[in-house]
Design goal:
This protein has eight helices and 15 strands. It has 354 residues and is an alpha/beta fold.
Protein backbone atom coordinates (compact mmCIF):
# COMPACT_ATOMS: atom_id res chain seq x y z
CA UNK A 1 0.00 0.00 0.00
CA UNK A 2 1.29 3.47 -0.85
CA UNK A 3 2.16 5.87 1.92
CA UNK A 4 -0.98 7.39 3.43
CA UNK A 5 -1.11 11.16 2.97
CA UNK A 6 -3.66 13.64 4.19
CA UNK A 7 -6.22 14.37 1.46
CA UNK A 8 -6.85 17.92 0.35
CA UNK A 9 -9.97 19.62 1.66
CA UNK A 10 -11.60 19.49 -1.77
CA UNK A 11 -10.96 15.75 -2.21
CA UNK A 12 -12.57 14.91 1.12
CA UNK A 13 -15.91 16.52 0.26
CA UNK A 14 -18.39 13.79 -0.73
CA UNK A 15 -20.41 14.12 -3.91
CA UNK A 16 -24.17 14.46 -3.63
CA UNK A 17 -25.67 11.18 -2.51
CA UNK A 18 -22.24 9.67 -1.76
CA UNK A 19 -20.88 8.95 1.73
CA UNK A 20 -23.90 10.70 3.20
CA UNK A 21 -22.97 9.54 6.70
CA UNK A 22 -19.79 11.61 6.78
CA UNK A 23 -20.26 14.80 8.75
CA UNK A 24 -17.04 16.67 9.48
CA UNK A 25 -16.44 18.24 12.86
CA UNK A 26 -16.81 22.00 13.05
CA UNK A 27 -13.78 23.69 11.50
CA UNK A 28 -13.20 27.07 13.17
CA UNK A 29 -11.02 28.15 10.23
CA UNK A 30 -14.06 28.16 7.95
CA UNK A 31 -16.06 30.51 10.20
CA UNK A 32 -15.80 34.15 9.04
CA UNK A 33 -14.21 36.50 11.56
CA UNK A 34 -17.39 38.58 11.75
CA UNK A 35 -19.32 35.51 12.93
CA UNK A 36 -16.89 34.38 15.62
CA UNK A 37 -18.03 34.86 19.17
CA UNK A 38 -16.48 35.14 22.59
CA UNK A 39 -17.74 32.60 25.10
CA UNK A 40 -17.72 32.20 28.87
CA UNK A 41 -17.17 28.52 29.66
CA UNK A 42 -18.32 27.10 32.98
CA UNK A 43 -17.38 23.55 33.91
CA UNK A 44 -18.01 20.76 36.39
CA UNK A 45 -15.21 20.02 38.89
CA UNK A 46 -14.19 16.84 37.05
CA UNK A 47 -13.68 18.63 33.73
CA UNK A 48 -11.47 21.49 34.91
CA UNK A 49 -8.35 20.19 33.12
CA UNK A 50 -10.22 19.81 29.82
CA UNK A 51 -11.81 23.26 30.24
CA UNK A 52 -8.36 24.85 30.59
CA UNK A 53 -7.18 23.06 27.45
CA UNK A 54 -10.22 24.34 25.56
CA UNK A 55 -9.26 27.90 26.49
CA UNK A 56 -5.71 27.29 25.19
CA UNK A 57 -7.13 26.07 21.88
CA UNK A 58 -9.68 28.86 21.44
CA UNK A 59 -7.43 31.65 20.08
CA UNK A 60 -8.68 33.91 22.85
CA UNK A 61 -12.38 33.36 22.14
CA UNK A 62 -13.10 31.40 25.34
CA UNK A 63 -12.63 32.43 28.96
CA UNK A 64 -13.47 30.40 32.05
CA UNK A 65 -16.34 31.16 34.39
CA UNK A 66 -16.46 29.99 37.98
CA UNK A 67 -19.04 28.05 39.96
CA UNK A 68 -18.83 27.29 43.66
CA UNK A 69 -19.72 23.65 44.19
CA UNK A 70 -20.67 22.92 47.79
CA UNK A 71 -23.05 20.75 49.78
CA UNK A 72 -25.43 21.45 52.61
CA UNK A 73 -25.27 19.32 55.73
CA UNK A 74 -28.01 17.04 54.35
CA UNK A 75 -25.91 16.31 51.25
CA UNK A 76 -27.90 18.33 48.72
CA UNK A 77 -25.91 20.70 46.49
CA UNK A 78 -25.11 24.27 47.51
CA UNK A 79 -24.30 26.01 44.22
CA UNK A 80 -23.37 29.56 43.24
CA UNK A 81 -22.53 31.06 39.83
CA UNK A 82 -19.88 33.73 40.34
CA UNK A 83 -20.29 37.09 38.63
CA UNK A 84 -23.73 36.16 37.30
CA UNK A 85 -24.67 39.74 36.41
CA UNK A 86 -21.64 40.17 34.14
CA UNK A 87 -22.52 37.20 31.93
CA UNK A 88 -25.71 38.90 30.75
CA UNK A 89 -25.82 39.26 26.96
CA UNK A 90 -22.80 36.96 26.62
CA UNK A 91 -22.47 33.59 24.96
CA UNK A 92 -22.24 31.01 27.73
CA UNK A 93 -21.36 27.31 27.72
CA UNK A 94 -21.14 24.56 30.30
CA UNK A 95 -18.77 21.58 30.09
CA UNK A 96 -20.43 18.68 31.89
CA UNK A 97 -19.54 15.14 32.90
CA UNK A 98 -22.32 12.70 33.80
CA UNK A 99 -19.83 9.97 34.68
CA UNK A 100 -21.71 9.05 37.85
CA UNK A 101 -25.47 9.27 38.58
CA UNK A 102 -24.70 11.04 41.86
CA UNK A 103 -23.40 14.17 40.07
CA UNK A 104 -26.19 14.54 37.52
CA UNK A 105 -28.62 16.41 39.78
CA UNK A 106 -26.16 19.12 40.77
CA UNK A 107 -25.02 19.63 37.19
CA UNK A 108 -28.57 19.65 35.83
CA UNK A 109 -29.36 22.34 38.41
CA UNK A 110 -26.59 24.53 36.98
CA UNK A 111 -27.50 23.68 33.38
CA UNK A 112 -31.10 24.76 33.98
CA UNK A 113 -30.00 27.95 35.75
CA UNK A 114 -27.45 29.38 33.30
CA UNK A 115 -29.81 30.09 30.35
CA UNK A 116 -32.08 32.04 32.71
CA UNK A 117 -29.34 34.54 33.58
CA UNK A 118 -30.17 36.64 30.49
CA UNK A 119 -27.33 35.15 28.43
CA UNK A 120 -27.24 35.64 24.66
CA UNK A 121 -26.94 31.92 23.95
CA UNK A 122 -26.26 28.72 25.84
CA UNK A 123 -24.27 25.66 24.78
CA UNK A 124 -24.03 22.44 26.77
CA UNK A 125 -20.95 20.35 25.99
CA UNK A 126 -21.46 16.78 27.17
CA UNK A 127 -18.61 14.86 25.50
CA UNK A 128 -19.88 11.47 26.71
CA UNK A 129 -23.60 10.60 26.74
CA UNK A 130 -23.44 7.93 29.44
CA UNK A 131 -26.77 6.13 29.07
CA UNK A 132 -26.36 5.70 25.32
CA UNK A 133 -25.94 1.93 25.57
CA UNK A 134 -29.46 1.58 27.02
CA UNK A 135 -31.30 3.02 24.06
CA UNK A 136 -34.01 0.45 23.33
CA UNK A 137 -36.59 -1.81 24.95
CA UNK A 138 -36.09 -5.49 24.12
CA UNK A 139 -38.35 -6.93 26.82
CA UNK A 140 -41.47 -5.41 28.34
CA UNK A 141 -40.33 -3.68 31.51
CA UNK A 142 -36.94 -2.53 30.21
CA UNK A 143 -36.33 1.16 30.88
CA UNK A 144 -34.51 2.98 28.06
CA UNK A 145 -32.53 5.41 30.22
CA UNK A 146 -30.99 7.00 27.11
CA UNK A 147 -34.44 8.38 26.37
CA UNK A 148 -34.84 9.51 29.99
CA UNK A 149 -31.62 11.53 29.92
CA UNK A 150 -32.50 12.98 26.52
CA UNK A 151 -35.84 14.15 27.92
CA UNK A 152 -34.08 15.82 30.85
CA UNK A 153 -31.76 17.68 28.49
CA UNK A 154 -34.64 18.57 26.17
CA UNK A 155 -36.19 20.66 28.95
CA UNK A 156 -33.26 23.05 29.35
CA UNK A 157 -34.82 26.55 29.44
CA UNK A 158 -34.46 28.76 26.40
CA UNK A 159 -31.84 31.49 26.51
CA UNK A 160 -32.40 34.92 24.98
CA UNK A 161 -30.97 33.53 21.75
CA UNK A 162 -33.29 30.54 21.61
CA UNK A 163 -32.71 26.79 22.02
CA UNK A 164 -29.65 25.31 23.70
CA UNK A 165 -26.91 23.85 21.51
CA UNK A 166 -25.94 20.39 22.78
CA UNK A 167 -22.51 19.06 21.76
CA UNK A 168 -21.97 15.28 22.10
CA UNK A 169 -19.12 13.15 20.74
CA UNK A 170 -19.79 9.74 19.18
CA UNK A 171 -23.13 9.01 20.79
CA UNK A 172 -23.51 5.23 21.03
CA UNK A 173 -26.48 4.81 18.69
CA UNK A 174 -27.15 7.29 15.91
CA UNK A 175 -30.92 6.98 16.28
CA UNK A 176 -30.60 8.62 19.71
CA UNK A 177 -30.50 12.00 17.96
CA UNK A 178 -34.27 11.61 17.60
CA UNK A 179 -34.74 11.26 21.37
CA UNK A 180 -34.14 14.99 21.86
CA UNK A 181 -36.98 17.50 21.71
CA UNK A 182 -37.26 20.66 19.65
CA UNK A 183 -36.00 22.92 22.46
CA UNK A 184 -32.39 21.72 22.05
CA UNK A 185 -30.18 21.59 18.96
CA UNK A 186 -27.92 18.51 19.14
CA UNK A 187 -24.54 18.78 17.42
CA UNK A 188 -22.96 15.34 17.04
CA UNK A 189 -19.19 15.43 16.72
CA UNK A 190 -16.64 12.61 16.47
CA UNK A 191 -13.28 11.70 17.94
CA UNK A 192 -12.25 9.80 14.79
CA UNK A 193 -10.62 12.86 13.11
CA UNK A 194 -8.20 12.96 16.06
CA UNK A 195 -7.31 9.33 15.40
CA UNK A 196 -6.78 10.01 11.70
CA UNK A 197 -4.35 12.81 12.55
CA UNK A 198 -2.45 10.46 14.87
CA UNK A 199 -2.33 7.61 12.34
CA UNK A 200 -0.79 9.92 9.75
CA UNK A 201 2.07 10.53 12.19
CA UNK A 202 2.94 6.84 12.67
CA UNK A 203 6.23 5.65 11.15
CA UNK A 204 4.40 2.54 9.87
CA UNK A 205 1.28 4.40 8.67
CA UNK A 206 1.53 2.68 5.28
CA UNK A 207 1.10 -0.65 7.06
CA UNK A 208 -2.02 0.30 9.07
CA UNK A 209 -5.26 -1.64 8.75
CA UNK A 210 -8.48 -0.54 10.47
CA UNK A 211 -10.46 -3.23 12.31
CA UNK A 212 -14.01 -3.16 13.65
CA UNK A 213 -15.07 -5.42 16.54
CA UNK A 214 -18.53 -5.95 15.03
CA UNK A 215 -20.63 -4.97 12.05
CA UNK A 216 -22.25 -2.15 14.01
CA UNK A 217 -18.89 -0.43 14.45
CA UNK A 218 -18.13 -0.92 10.74
CA UNK A 219 -21.43 0.68 9.70
CA UNK A 220 -20.83 3.51 12.12
CA UNK A 221 -17.22 4.46 11.35
CA UNK A 222 -15.91 3.04 8.09
CA UNK A 223 -16.97 6.06 6.01
CA UNK A 224 -14.61 8.27 7.99
CA UNK A 225 -11.59 6.18 6.96
CA UNK A 226 -12.53 5.89 3.29
CA UNK A 227 -10.63 8.95 2.05
CA UNK A 228 -7.35 7.72 3.56
CA UNK A 229 -7.64 4.35 1.87
CA UNK A 230 -6.83 2.14 4.87
CA UNK A 231 -7.52 -1.58 4.36
CA UNK A 232 -10.20 -2.93 6.68
CA UNK A 233 -10.85 -5.97 8.84
CA UNK A 234 -14.32 -6.75 10.18
CA UNK A 235 -14.91 -9.08 13.10
CA UNK A 236 -18.23 -10.53 14.19
CA UNK A 237 -19.65 -12.17 17.31
CA UNK A 238 -21.19 -15.62 17.00
CA UNK A 239 -22.81 -17.90 19.54
CA UNK A 240 -21.08 -21.09 20.63
CA UNK A 241 -23.55 -22.67 22.99
CA UNK A 242 -23.98 -20.24 25.88
CA UNK A 243 -20.90 -18.21 24.90
CA UNK A 244 -20.35 -15.52 22.30
CA UNK A 245 -17.02 -15.65 20.53
CA UNK A 246 -15.32 -13.24 18.14
CA UNK A 247 -14.53 -14.45 14.63
CA UNK A 248 -13.06 -12.83 11.53
CA UNK A 249 -15.71 -11.95 8.97
CA UNK A 250 -13.54 -10.34 6.29
CA UNK A 251 -10.12 -8.82 5.75
CA UNK A 252 -6.47 -9.87 6.07
CA UNK A 253 -4.64 -8.83 9.26
CA UNK A 254 -1.47 -10.84 8.59
CA UNK A 255 1.68 -8.72 8.84
CA UNK A 256 -0.28 -5.52 9.45
CA UNK A 257 -0.48 -2.97 12.27
CA UNK A 258 -4.18 -3.42 12.98
CA UNK A 259 -6.07 -0.63 14.78
CA UNK A 260 -9.40 -1.64 16.35
CA UNK A 261 -11.94 1.21 16.32
CA UNK A 262 -15.07 1.52 18.47
CA UNK A 263 -17.06 4.26 20.18
CA UNK A 264 -16.50 3.18 23.80
CA UNK A 265 -14.98 0.57 26.06
CA UNK A 266 -16.22 -0.62 29.43
CA UNK A 267 -14.91 -3.95 30.71
CA UNK A 268 -12.76 -4.35 27.59
CA UNK A 269 -13.60 -7.99 27.02
CA UNK A 270 -14.56 -7.58 23.36
CA UNK A 271 -11.43 -5.58 22.50
CA UNK A 272 -9.19 -8.15 24.16
CA UNK A 273 -10.92 -10.99 22.31
CA UNK A 274 -10.43 -9.10 19.03
CA UNK A 275 -6.77 -8.52 19.82
CA UNK A 276 -6.23 -12.21 20.55
CA UNK A 277 -7.97 -13.20 17.32
CA UNK A 278 -5.98 -10.74 15.20
CA UNK A 279 -2.72 -11.80 16.84
CA UNK A 280 -3.48 -15.45 16.12
CA UNK A 281 -4.04 -14.53 12.47
CA UNK A 282 -0.58 -13.00 12.15
CA UNK A 283 -1.06 -9.28 12.87
CA UNK A 284 2.31 -7.59 13.40
CA UNK A 285 0.91 -5.17 16.00
CA UNK A 286 -2.55 -4.49 17.39
CA UNK A 287 -3.67 -1.08 18.65
CA UNK A 288 -7.08 0.25 19.67
CA UNK A 289 -9.02 3.50 19.62
CA UNK A 290 -12.18 4.43 21.48
CA UNK A 291 -13.66 7.88 21.92
CA UNK A 292 -14.91 7.08 25.42
CA UNK A 293 -12.77 5.11 27.85
CA UNK A 294 -15.35 4.37 30.55
CA UNK A 295 -13.42 1.54 32.27
CA UNK A 296 -15.59 0.87 35.36
CA UNK A 297 -13.84 -0.82 38.29
CA UNK A 298 -10.38 0.01 36.90
CA UNK A 299 -10.87 -2.39 34.00
CA UNK A 300 -8.19 -0.41 32.11
CA UNK A 301 -5.64 -2.46 34.05
CA UNK A 302 -6.42 -5.45 31.78
CA UNK A 303 -4.73 -3.74 28.84
CA UNK A 304 -1.00 -4.44 28.66
CA UNK A 305 1.57 -2.86 26.33
CA UNK A 306 3.01 -4.72 23.38
CA UNK A 307 6.70 -5.05 24.26
CA UNK A 308 7.57 -7.19 21.26
CA UNK A 309 10.43 -6.55 18.88
CA UNK A 310 8.15 -6.31 15.86
CA UNK A 311 8.36 -9.98 14.96
CA UNK A 312 4.82 -10.54 16.19
CA UNK A 313 2.25 -9.38 18.73
CA UNK A 314 3.65 -9.96 22.20
CA UNK A 315 0.52 -10.26 24.31
CA UNK A 316 -0.47 -6.61 24.34
CA UNK A 317 -1.49 -3.43 22.52
CA UNK A 318 0.99 -1.26 20.66
CA UNK A 319 -1.14 1.81 21.40
CA UNK A 320 -4.47 2.36 23.09
CA UNK A 321 -5.80 5.75 22.06
CA UNK A 322 -8.73 7.38 23.83
CA UNK A 323 -10.02 10.91 24.23
CA UNK A 324 -10.41 12.91 27.43
CA UNK A 325 -14.22 12.64 27.38
CA UNK A 326 -14.10 10.66 30.65
CA UNK A 327 -11.97 12.80 32.93
CA UNK A 328 -11.60 10.30 35.77
CA UNK A 329 -10.24 7.67 33.39
CA UNK A 330 -7.71 10.14 31.98
CA UNK A 331 -6.29 10.72 35.45
CA UNK A 332 -5.97 6.95 35.96
CA UNK A 333 -4.25 6.05 32.68
CA UNK A 334 -2.18 9.12 31.86
CA UNK A 335 1.51 8.22 31.32
CA UNK A 336 0.70 4.49 31.48
CA UNK A 337 1.58 2.38 28.46
CA UNK A 338 -0.12 1.54 26.13
CA UNK A 339 -2.53 4.45 26.70
CA UNK A 340 -2.29 7.75 24.85
CA UNK A 341 -4.77 10.62 25.24
CA UNK A 342 -6.11 12.44 22.17
CA UNK A 343 -7.67 15.62 23.53
CA UNK A 344 -11.09 16.89 22.49
CA UNK A 345 -10.07 20.43 23.47
CA UNK A 346 -9.59 21.74 19.92
CA UNK A 347 -12.81 20.22 18.49
CA UNK A 348 -14.80 21.56 21.44
CA UNK A 349 -13.28 25.03 21.09
CA UNK A 350 -14.35 25.00 17.43
CA UNK A 351 -17.85 23.71 18.27
CA UNK A 352 -18.36 26.62 20.66
CA UNK A 353 -18.24 28.92 17.63
CA UNK A 354 -21.49 27.50 16.24
Amino acid sequence: MAEVTQPSRSSSVPHAGENFRIVSNVDALTIPARMKKDCVLFFSPETEDLAKEIVKNSNGNVILGKIKWGKFSDGFPDLFVDDAINIRNKHVAFLGSFHNPSVIFEQISVIYALPRLFVSSFTLVLPFFPTGTMERVENEGDVATAHTLARLLSHIPLSRGGPTSLVIFDIHALQERFYFGDSVLPLFESGVPLLLERLRMLPDRSNVTIAYPDEGAWKRFHYQFKADGFPEVVCTKVRDGSKRIVQLKEGKPEGRHVVIVDDLVQSGGTLIECRNLLASLGARHVSAFVTHGVFPNNSWSKFKPDLGDGSGVADGFKYFWLTDSCSNTVRDVRDRAPFEILSLAAPIASALQI
